[in-house]
Amino acid sequence: RVSFSFGYHSEEGSIKYEDYSRLTFKFNDDLKISNSFRVGMGLTGSYAKLPQLRNFGSALNATPVVAPINMIPGDYYGLYNSLPQQIGAAQIGNPLALVEGHRYTQLNKDFQFNPNAYLEFDFFDHFTFRSNYFVTYRNGNGRGYSPIFDVYITESNTSAPYSGRLLTSINQFENRDISFQQNQLLTYKNQFGEHNLTLLAGFETTSREYTEMSASARSSLSNPLGQIPNNPRFWYMNTDFVDSTTKSVNSGQYKTRNVSYFGRMLYNFSNKYLLNASIRNDGSSALATGNRFDWFWSVGAAWEVTRENFMKEIDFLNYFKVKGSYGDLGNQYTPYNYFGYPIYVEGGTGVFNGNLYPAFVTQWEEADDLGWEHLKSYEFGFESMMLNRRLSFDATYYNKKTEDLLNYVPGNPNFFLNAGSIESKGFEFTLGWKDNFSENFSYYFNGNLSTAKTKVLNTLESGYQVFYGPSIYKEGLPMGAFYGYIVDGLYQSYADILGSPSSTIGDVAPGDFKYRDVNGDGKITPDDRTIIGDPTPDFTYGFSLGTDYKGFYLNADFYGVYGNEVFRNWGNGSSFAPFNYREERIERWIGAGSSNWEPRSNSSSGYNRENSTYMIEDGSFFRIRNIQLGYSFDKEMISAFNLQALKLYFNVQNLKTWDHVNGFTPEFGGSATQFGVNNSGYPNPRITSLGINATF
């Protein structure tokens, strides 16, 4: 049994010259040598030319009253304009000059190759042994160029190099990531009357090796050949255009090993009582020598109540199952792979015989007791179908507690340790309905809703807290909670300032924020900071609906979140330079009574740049995620063309989003400790497509 597939994909980004293309292929060959012996191999791979990514930060902040290109006749006609110094030139370059002047100057490629093979045989009637092997090879490489070109300076009627760059430069990099995984599985299956039993025992190892190298260099004004040309032929370290004294080379590498022993049991009696259990012992090279191995397990059970005799008289309930599970899973991720062998880095200086020498310290303290992080979770709920299986409703409660968190604690010295725990809990609901208006007219509805509540149960020690930008990690608070001052309005006059708690965090003037004295000590201090937002939604929801009439069909998919806050990190009008601000800043304070929310325009005041409720936005949104209208041809109609199936469709993705944030999208990623920060984002494009799907 052989299969092969090949694909090509090409796409343009929302910014010019963000071109992406990818070739993919997949091959599988399965051979049945006998009824009890089977072998197979497979191969997947891809080759991609990666886009030269940009962002919208400078485009949003650049003042739009300046034309991008100088159209005044003269020596500087056609050059890109520089922004005037008075409106941000020192911090913001012409965004169009950046894109056009650097087009196709970074050539990055990615190659992946993933072979796999297996052999499987049955023996003693009920036993099966399977041996699997997987290899993952990934190579990324690229080279780039930083050009020199002039921009027009309006104030002096002269030209100057863009970004002050006088020398061209190049960069090269390559990284290789190779993983090998094998597992050996022994399975036993048997049925004893109404008893069904499946047992599995396994052994698995994973080996990963990663290497990377990067280099950069500049040209030289004294080189008789001149600057490095804007031609990919010369974007290499060994060309004659490169000043060898400016070459800089960096490298990195690591190896990791994992080994696992595991077992699993699946049992059911009369298809009414179901039980599954698993146990495993995992080892990781990333942990301390004495703690590399640890045990993990899980158990789950279910009861299909509607198979019982006492349920046969309940006609409206066609299917009802109660279920529950408990498990202890592990995590061994650490930001460094050789925590037990810290490298030395510069940590100071010393003077010997009148000469200054660098002093070296270990990058972190050795952690000889670092062990696995444990995720202990349980859930219980039910599944049901009613009214001749037209209505379905499922509900689940879950509780996840992560203990012995792997922490990297900065300090003197830095160190690793297992400390702290966090909790996440909530409910998950799904609801569905499907029915027919007539023989040729059907419809359906499916919906889901999930709630989530997170909490830091304990940390390194009582009172310990860490800041990650506007987010705080502290006992008793939600994960990633935003921390800052509560704004109660603006100071309208100096009399208002004198009648309010005094500020110890900066000088204030009329038009500045009036922060709340949370602790009531009569002054504004850092101790008045408090929780100002939670980036985790109260609930997320989605639903889909569709209908089918004589081959014509319509499907629609919707998605939304509710109850989370977003921290706006741009366009607040409180920067050191006068950038282009959000439209709301037009209503800024310009005198007593003019505004009680938008502060005065004063780029020199650091007081208004403190994290506060002014930066908090409502992160709730609702999106029409996908709509498809199509027609499936009747099989008899297309049989004359040797077709098994034929479908035509029109599809729209991301048709409309309703939200309350400033920026391109209400969704923002991040890390486990900081997420939901609005940096303006990247547009979520609306994609309209026409398609045909034919099966021969």
**Overall mean pLDDT:** 93
Low-confidence stretches: none
Number of helices: 4
Helical percent range? Answer: under 10%
How many strands? 39
For the report, how would you describe the main beta sheet?
21 strands, antiparallel
Percent range for β-strand residues: over 45%
Compute the CA-based radius of gyration.
32 Å
Class from secondary-structure proportions: mainly beta
End-to-end CA span? 18 Å
- Envelope shape: globular
In short:
The chain is built from four helices and 39 strands.
Q: Could you explain how this protein is built, in words?
A:
This protein is mainly beta and 696 residues long. It has four helices and 39 strands. The strands form eight sheets. The chain has a 21-stranded antiparallel beta sheet that branches. A hairpin with a 4-residue loop joins strand 17 and strand 18. The model has no long low-confidence stretch (mean pLDDT 93).
